[in-house]
Amino acid sequence: MYQVLARKYRPRIFDEIIGQDAIVQTLKNAVNNDRISHAYIFTGTRGVGKTSIARILAKSINCVNGPTVNPCGVCSACVQIQNGNSVDVIEIDGASNTGVDSIRDLKESIIYSPQSFRFKIYIIDEVHMLSNSAFNALLKTLEEPPAHAKFIFATTEIHKIPETILSRCQRFNFKRIPTKIIFEKLKEIAAAEGISATEENLMIISSLADGSLRDSLSIFDTAISYFGNDIKEDVSAVLGLTPKSIIFNLITAIFAKDHESSIKAAREIYESGADVRQFMKQAAFYIRNIIVVKLNYRDLIYDLTDEEIKSLTPFAEQRTLEELLDMLDIIINADVKFQRISSPLLMLELTIFRLFNVPLKKDVTELISKIDGLAELSVKVLETPAEHGEPKNSLESHKSNEITFSEHIVLTGGNPNNVPQYNPAYKQNNKQPLEHEKLFEHFSKMDEKLNEREKQTKLDGIKQPNDRQEIFHEIKKKEDLIIENIKEIFGDSIERIDKN
Ligand SMILES: [Zn+2]
Q1: pLDDT by residue (tens digit) across 202-213?
Q2: Of 124, 202, 305, 313, which one's alpha carbon is 20 to 30 angstroms from that of 489?
């Protein structure tokens, strides 16, 4: 008979627990030092090891070799606890025993010594489901627990537990298990089960489980029952997801502004029967990952293989951070924006149209660093000693082409007769976007810096005229490039004028 993976691979000893290292270490120390608390409360999302650790701890305490961090697994205590039929280790499901009765039973039976083992251990799962009167009854026992009793509570909703109970327990917060760790575990299990599954598929299953090992194993079971032992085909559709290849094609088409392919991809997604809202979630994560690549925080991508991460780089290079954030914004707001549209296909198409129209934004910071580079270059020219004998006024004539390029730029505000000049007065009155403000500030700082350097620089040295010309040429080229970039940010409201 097929045994579900979650049951078959349930951890039996501390060392088989994954993703909860700190908790495991603390409990091991408690067992080793014989300082086991009389009540624990384990909190965390489902399927992260709360009940497994509760049972392992119970075995550690009651094993014939105990207390030990390595319960033998074969003595009667270990076997009974493993099978959940020990008279001294009582498991209560808070979700199905909400009444006071089971706790009243507990209150009455707890006073008697354990029948076979060292300790009576009460494991209460979903303890937050107990009624108020059950909590009150429980509190009485917790206030004066008999020396032979231990409690282990588990809950997914710690906020529903009365403070009076919490204050009498040692608390452990269980973490979601990182996708990469689940992925490694699935690889191990696949090998043990003789199942050949692609890494991409195991990654899809791991990330869909949202930090729960148990969920990942149930999803893996679903995939196995569909594909058998050979899971090579993309499992997405079977699990209600849009295959990554389709998302990749769609994103490629959107980035390339290829309307036809995008609409085709949208129809493909719709016709595959995928839930459009689930798809939006996947697409949002996709853009999120591109942003993470853009920011160079690849370690923060949990749900893609290295190969898949590499495929995001071209996208990250094509758009600025602000553009990517705008795209993410459109996708995550699609639900709200189009809530009155009942057709999922239409919602999908409209979202794609909106993604086409994300305005191109140059990154002001990037631009400023380019300007800085230019400024440095200008200073270099100034600091370069002029050729011996070159008349001073020739140098002066170069100067107007050199550093004061901020003076070449004015904002016309679209009206050539009303030129808001680059000067402090403009700054005070302007109602331009922040970017203008930022640039102007930068220009003026740069001018100050350059003037300062210029004053300090002695200009009467020696320099080959050809070299100087080359540098001027280079500056000019860069300057043109920057002006172009600035124009892209500010559109037609900016114009370049020659100072003279
Ligand atoms: Zn044992």
Answers
A1: 999 999 998 999
A2: 313
